Amino acid sequence: MATGSILIVDDEEKLRSLLKRIISLEGFTIHEASNLKAANKILDKESIDILLCDVKLPDGNGVSFTEETKKKFPLLEIILLTAYGNIGDGVQAMKYGAFDYITKGDDNDKIIPLLNNALQKVQLQKKIQQLETEVGKKYSFKNILGESPLIKEAIELAQKVAPTDTTVLLLGETGTGKEVFAQAIHNGSNRSGKAFLALNCSSFNSDLLESEIFGHKAGAFTSAIKDKKGLIEEADGGTLFLDEIGEMHVDLQSKLLRVLETNEFIKVGDTKLIKVNVRIITATNRDLEQEVVDGRFRNDLFYRLNVFTIELPALRDRKKDIPILAEHFMKIYAAKSKKRIEGISKDFIEHLQQHDWKGNIRELKNIIERAVILSNSAQLTVDYLPLDLQTTSYKPQALSAFDLTSMEKLHIQRVLNHTKGNKTEAAKLLNIGLTTLYRKIEEYKLLS
Known about the structure:
The protein has four domains: 129 residues, Rossmann fold, CATH 3.40.50.2300; 175 residues, P-loop containing nucleotide triphosphate hydrolases (Rossmann fold, 3-Layer(aba) Sandwich); 75 residues, Orthogonal Bundle (Helicase, Ruva Protein, domain 3), CATH 1.10.8.60; 41 residues, Orthogonal Bundle (Arc Repressor Mutant, subunit A). 46% of the residues lie in helices and 15% in strands. The chain has 19 helices and 18 strands. The strands form six sheets. Strands 2-1-3-6-7 form a five-stranded parallel sheet, sandwiched between helices. Strands 9-12-15-8-16 form a five-stranded parallel sheet. Strands 4-5 form a two-stranded antiparallel sheet. Strand 13 and strand 14 form a beta hairpin. About 2% of the residues have low confidence.
């Protein structure tokens, strides 16, 4: 039995009553209106799945009403009824988004199957919308966890650039969450309703990578038995994320540069230009400036990609975020494995904070997943850590008035005071990287 709701709009009361009787037997919830004004009030108030509407009404035309209503309620399916079939009206109605256009009386036997088909489409569209909403939430900026200054700064920059169409270059070590940031930028843009496609450039040789990105024509090479769309065409209107862009061969870089400059490209084995509207987000763990100097990366492409750069901090530079991240992953994997784990021991966290995290957040995620799998208690303890992390001893740092650490802390604080909290200027005066300065500020709990 159907569970959808239908609004019948017709100025003939007898016809409305007949349709109501027939359709309600199938389990639909029925609403009625004798004109478009009343129909609008019901649509604004009730959740309607299908509109069954006469073409000629006292206060308007059902075909024009279809255009207005589909703009306002895109998931609503509309079936138009007419006493006299008119091909022009039918074509126009379908153009405006009507589900079907049928003649009164002649098509009464088709009404129920038609309504069921329309309802299936509505339910499918609602499910897709719900999934898109869930994906949007999963990859939103709110789901990027962390309280350290470095990650907050990266999030703030990403939020500012997201609504634009600007090309973004994400820098950072492997496992720092570059694809998560790319997804969040896409979902924070006006392209969020379109495709987000990601490709790791290090996963293919040069020829295959060209085909994956730009597509190919049938016969372009031995195994090209049919035309293939590349990701850049598939992502038209949306976003293409190219990870490890530093691995792309120099010859292929020129084709990407053309897309960035003209929004045009040519498939492998073709001569026809294809126009696209796609946002490019790239990422790398390489020093692209050095790659340019060494002749492995085009200077002009580097400057086109380097319009807006966001550096993602390594986990070792944001260790205060480890407890938040560890608890988050613990909850996820406990739910997946259907285990009741209520918390994480202090020793467990302290051991995590002493680790170097060469694999960054990805490594932390794997270690928490392993710990959850091994756990047979209500709390994650040191026993569930890998042996190399278990043997890491936690040593609280005591600062004396005479040791080198104390002198460094005092000197950095004086420089920060001198620059009035300007960290970029302080890092230059100290001749250290900005990332290192942030780490020292956190480590020594300095006032900045």
